[in-house]
Amino acid sequence: MANMVMFFILAVVILGSAVMCVMTKRIMRAATFLLFVLLGVAGLYFLLDYTFLGAAQISVYAGGITMIYIFAIQLVSKRTLQGLVERFKGSRVAFGALMAVIGLVTVVAVFLKNKFIDMSMQMADVEVPMNVIGNTLMGSEKYQYVLPFEFISVFLLACIIGGIVISRKDK
C-alpha cells in the first residue's frame, strides 16, 4: 500500500512538473521543472528497487544534462532571451495536438503488434539480475548499448564546444 501511495505522489510530481516545464515562459523555471521531472523518474527507479538505475538517473540526467542545459541558457545573451515572447496560435496548437495523437496511435499500434503488454504481464514475476543489465548497457554485441552511449557522449561534447564557440564569437 505504501508503494502505491509513493507511486501516486511521484506520478503527480512528474506530471505536474512536466506540464509546468512546457507551459512556463521563463526558461530557467523550465530547466528547474525538468530537474524535478528527472528526480521523480529516479524516485520511480528507487521505488522499484533499481538502485543502480536510480543513481545513474540522478548523476547523469538530473545532474549532468540539467547542468548542460543551464550552462547553455547562461551562454545565450540576455538580450536574445528578453525579446522572445511566444504566442499560442490556434493552428499551431491544433497541429501539435494532431501530432501528439498520431504519436500516441503509433506507440499503441507498435505495442499491440509486438504484444509488449502480454510479454510484460508474463514476465512480471521475473527479476532481471543487475549484471545482466550492466552487460546489456555496456556490451558491444547485438542489442547492447555501448555504441549509442559513445555517440551520445560525442554529441554532448560537440554541443559544449559549439556553446563555447558561440559565446566567444566577436561581433
Description:
- Helix 1 (2-23) runs antiparallel to helix 2 and helix 2 packs antiparallel against helix 3.
- This protein has helices spanning 2-23, 27-47, 51-75, 78-82, 90-114, 116-122, 130-138, 146-168.
- It contains 8 helices and no strands.
- The radius of gyration is 20 Å and the shape is globular.
Radius of gyration: 20 Å
Question: What is the global morphology?
Answer: globular
The percentage of residues in β strands lies in: under 5%
Major beta sheet summary: none
Rounded mean pLDDT is 84
Number of helices: 8
Question: Could you state the order of secondary-structure elements as H and E?
Answer: HHHHHHHH
- Distance between termini? 61 Å
Residue ranges: pLDDT <50 for 5 or more in a row?
A: none
What is the percent of helical residues? over 70%
Class of secondary structure makeup: mainly alpha
- DSSP strand count: 0
